[in-house]
Amino acid sequence: MSDRILIIGSSGQIGTELVMRLRSIYGNDNVIASDIKDAAPEVMESGPFEVIDGKNRDQVFYVVKKHKITQVYLLAAMLSATAERHVEAGWSLNMRTLSHVLDMGKDKIIKKIYWPSSIAVFGPNTPRILTPQHTIMDPNTVYGISKLSGERWCDYYNQKFGVDVRSIRYPGIISWKADPGGGTTDYAVEIFHKALKEGKYTSFLSENTELPMMYMPDALDATINLMEAPVEQIGIRSSYNVAGVSFTPKKIAEEIKKHIPNFEIDYAPDYRQPIADSWPQSIDDSVAREQWGWRHNYGLEEMTVDMLTNLKIKFGM
């Protein structure tokens, strides 16, 4: 029997594109999208979709049994900046959904689980340059605390119950398809929209705030390659560091100006600045590269060209 995949949180930035990529690999009917709200039209029209509140174990269990699910990609989460404003809701969503899915893995209802972590697990005392796989982790945000807790639960369920759970610590994800979604790194998506539509942008991070980023095609490759890697290659069950490219608002603005010479940027750091200041500037992902062959394809220059090209089409320019 072929794998049957459920994606919980398919309406988010990564979920929308991951559904379509997985459907191209496994077949439309074998990839069930789900979220608390309807997904993008291409997701709704190309294959099965279920409305699920990931915090409701019975709803998740029903859909898993109904579709004979073997793999779950659990993407439902409240992101960093939003969770800081809604502490209880952020903690509940980020933790309850994971515990339900891990329990289904423990009970052998599903065979394999993907759950994303984040660079938000690091904190002010973490080495910020080439942050290692194993290091000090002292997150000071609701999102980061929930992701670090989730990493420990994933490792625990693997060690104690043999659950095949796999995870990546995503850096900031940049995509032309989805709108910004409330994350601290989302300035790197907004800046392209504003550059094309208005010719100027006010960054909510200071000009020299360097953060690790990754272009969506690389993020999808990392996710799927990790899930398809032989089990003997997966040596880490908390979460893997992965890296793409690190840059600052000033640096990405300079790259955009090569294509839009009159583009202007100014800076008005807000409540997201302290969050960014607690995160790494660059990531050491050598363990992922050694264990399951991770490689990225997009640098800042290639990403900028692809973003502007596709957004112009999207906006009818």
Residue share in β-strands: 5-15%
CATH homology superfamily of the largest domain: NAD(P)-binding Rossmann-like Domain
Q: Spans of 5+ residues with little confidence (pLDDT < 50)? A: none
How is the CATH topology of the largest domain named?
Rossmann fold
Structural features, described:
This protein is α/β, with parallel strands linked by helices. The protein folds into 2 domains: 5-171 and 214-241, NAD(P)-binding Rossmann-like Domain (Rossmann fold); 172-213 and 244-314, UDP-galactose 4-epimerase, domain 1 (Alpha-Beta Complex). The chain is built from 12 helices and 14 strands. The strands form 4 sheets. Strands 3-2-1-4-5-7 form a 6-stranded parallel β-sheet. It is globular, with a radius of gyration of 19 Å.
Brief rundown of the structure:
This protein is of the alpha/beta class and 317 residues long. 43% of the residues lie in helices and 15% in strands.
Structural descriptors:
single chain, 317 residues, 15% strand, alpha/beta, UDP-galactose 4-epimerase, domain 1, 14 strands, 3-stranded parallel sheet
What's the structural blueprint in terms of helices and strands?
Layout: E1 5-8, H1 13-26, E2 31-35, H2 41-46, E3 49-51, H3 57-66, E4 71-74, H4 80-85, H5 87-106, E5 112-114, E6 117-118, H6 142-161, E7 165-166, E8 168-170, E9 172-174, H7 187-197, E10 200-203, E11 211-215, H8 216-228, E12 240-241, E13 245-247, H9 249-257, E14 264-267, H10 272-277, H11 286-292, H12 300-314
Parallel strand pairs: 1-2, 1-4, 2-3, 4-5, 5-7, 6-8, 8-12, 9-11, 10-14
Antiparallel strand pairs: 11-13
Helix pairs in contact: 1-8, 5-6, 7-9
